[in-house]
């Protein structure tokens, strides 16, 4: 019975709490939860560190020229073809996407958005689809103080406004052609001169900044006569 009391001191009523075994057991029980919590806390910190390293936590370059065609996978040969004509650029999805992002940096994306809306409008299969689409385009891009009002001459805007009540497939043709010429003569040449386009032509990844050599702070002459100190090794 004495042996069992030693292994299970809590059953020994006469056992003294001052015995060393009781003190060791008590301290061990208190320390175990503390030790067990450390790995959990460490894992939480590791997960937080990995989370903060994800790309979405470091985005903030929206609209910057270096990121215009970040998502596009375009070969230099394909990019070169965009320079052949404005129509060639807009006929390809990657080209349209790159040009749209470029216009966003110039705060003139309403022009390409209007052109795309007109292209979609002309694909309407029934006359029943034309009226709601025409109204939406007119209220968004053409009417006075529209949220994305495009730059149209008075005559073109007036003719378009008169045809909104009974729209047909060609209702926006004059306005679309005006905006098309504006982009072709003004925005398109600047796009071809932009760094984002030139990087594509040269096969560079626009999402990665070009490495630059650090400015030389010291010259070879600065170290003449200086003996190396191998004690640091």
TrEMBL record:
One of its GO terms (biological process) is negative regulation of signal transduction. Keywords: Signal transduction inhibitor. The keyword Repressor does not apply. SUPFAM superfamilies: Regulator of G-protein signaling, RGS (SSF48097). Transmembrane segments: none annotated. Residues 85-201 form the RGS domain. It holds the Pfam family RGS. Gene3D superfamilies: 1.10.196.10, Regulator of G-protein Signalling 4, domain 2 (1.10.167.10). This is RGS18 protein.
């Amino acid at each position: 019975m004495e042996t069992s009391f030693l292994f299970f001191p809590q059953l020994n009523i006469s056992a003294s709490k001052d015995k060393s075994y009781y003190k060791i057991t008590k301290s061990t029980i208190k320390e175990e939860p503390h030790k067990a919590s450390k790995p959990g806390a460490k894992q939480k910190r590791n997960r937080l560190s990995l989370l903060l390293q994800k790309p979405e936590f470091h985005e903030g370059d929206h609209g910057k020229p270096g990121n215009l065609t970040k998502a596009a996978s375009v070969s230099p040969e394909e990019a070169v073809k965009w320079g052949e004509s404005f129509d060639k650029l807009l006929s390809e999805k990657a080209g349209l996407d790159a040009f749209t992002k470029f216009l966003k940096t110039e705060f003139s994306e309403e022009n390409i958005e209007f052109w795309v809306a007109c292209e979609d409008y002309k694909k309407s299969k029934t006359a029943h689809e034309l009226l709601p689409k025409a109204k939406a385009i007119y209220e968004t891009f053409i009417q006075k103080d529209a949220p994305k009002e495009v730059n149209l001459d008075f005559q073109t805007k007036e003719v378009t406004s008169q045809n909104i009540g009974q729209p047909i497939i060609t209702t926006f043709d004059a306005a679309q052609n005006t905006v098309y010429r504006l982009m072709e003569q003004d925005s398109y040449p600047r796009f071809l001169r932009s760094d984002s386009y030139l990087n594509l032509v040269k096969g560079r990844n626009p999402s990665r900044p070009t490495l630059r050599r650090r400015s030389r702070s010291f010259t070879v002459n600065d170290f003449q006569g200086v003996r190396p100190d191998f004690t640091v090794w």
